[in-house]
Amino acid sequence: MPISPGSPLLELVGIRVSFDGFLALKNLNLQLAAGELRAVIGPNGAGKTTFLDVITGKVRPQAGDVRFRGRSLLGHNEHRIARLGIGRKFQSPRVFEQLSVQENLALAVSTPKTPMGLLRRHLTSAQRQRVHHLLEVINLAPRAHHRAGSLSHGQKQWLEIGMLVVQDPQLLLVDEPVAGLSDAETERTADLLRSLAGEHTVLVIEHDMEFIRRLQTQVTVLHQGQVLCEGSMEQVQTDPRVVEVYLGAGQEQQP
């Protein structure tokens, strides 16, 4: 069902999550437009991981609603939410290291999603084209037939992003994609995520402020479980509230 013009693809309204008396999210409100690239930052303990857990159904809020394409996600489990078109990439890459890069992408697009299922089932022409296209997008076409286990950490990150994108999610949630990457890999990752926006809505959580600048996009700052401010990186880094929060959290986290 298409969303109405001007309506957000994703909307969180008044989200509250508490763990044993600790308020992880407090009246959190956020909207994402279709095709948008959004970066989310915040000091440790700001609620970033819980925020993603609520969207994907891993954590159910005590109050508020999560709406995707105008429909509430509350009550749906993680698998159902994934099938609705929300893909999540965790910080550590999760690839099948004994399979080739191309086989990993083929496995992601095939059904059933098991290595044995891949051996028993041929991909359609459209699926093969999709796999070959994604190999180019993620800069791994020259290594298509190499074992995934032989890739660098950054290349494994790109492969896992490709494994999500090949399934054509409308919303892609990416958690700290450049942790442990070289400067060159970090720059290429920013280019990759920018290229995916438009066809997909992309939400990125990251601590690396230089990487956030390279994304050249809208930034949301979380603090103590709620949105502190939003704007361009230039606007955010000069906001007195953000400066105070990061200085209070330590110089190493200063935006």
Automatic annotation (TrEMBL):
Keywords from the UniProt entry: ATP-binding, Nucleotide-binding, Transport
Superkingdom of the organism of origin: Bacteria
Species of the source: Candidatus Synechococcus spongiarum 142
Domain ABC transporter residue range list: 10-249
GO cellular component: plasma membrane
SUPFAM superfamilies in the cross-refs: P-loop containing nucleoside triphosphate hydrolases
Single GO molecular function: ATP hydrolysis activity
CDD domains recorded: ABC_Mj1267_LivG_branched (cd03219)
Keyword Manganese: no
PANTHER family the record matches: CONSERVED COMPONENT OF ABC TRANSPORTER FOR NATURAL AMINO ACIDS-RELATED, HIGH-AFFINITY BRANCHED-CHAIN AMINO ACID TRANSPORT ATP-BINDING PROTEIN
Protein name as catalogued: Urea ABC transporter ATP-binding protein
Keyword flag Nucleotide-binding: yes
